[in-house]
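anyone seen this seq b4? input:
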Amino acid sequence: MKKMTIFEPALCCETGVCGVSIDSELLRISTILNSLKKHNVIVDRFNLNVAPMEFINNKTINDYINVHGADGLPVVLIDDVISITGRYPTNEEFVSLLSIPSDLLYNCENINPNECNCADNVENTSCCGNDESC
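predicted toks r here
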């Protein structure tokens, strides 16, 4: 399996649920990574504020930051090669970069399809039946 590592800018929290406003993109990433972890797919995630030594010790990311600065974060590495810069992967990119089935992105246990606005749950897709997150 391919190894994905996400290097993030300095954040107060990685969940996106901190302070007055909610960062929907961080919440999406946290939800996906949590679901992948439940399926034994581990993605390493390092926050510049919390794990600065990971940035220093990784030559690829260290070289990138020396050229682009922290404003170029987040950076996604696949097998220690830069794959995405300046943004997080889309759901489709998680699937293609990790070579995993799309249903691993969603934790569909105990999900009622009617709660997803999709009464017709289609097999072999997300729990909503249309590749949308629950």
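Residues 4-100 form a domain with the Glutaredoxin fold (CATH 3.40.30.10). The beta strands are 4-8, 43-47, 75-78, 81-85. kinda curious what u guys think
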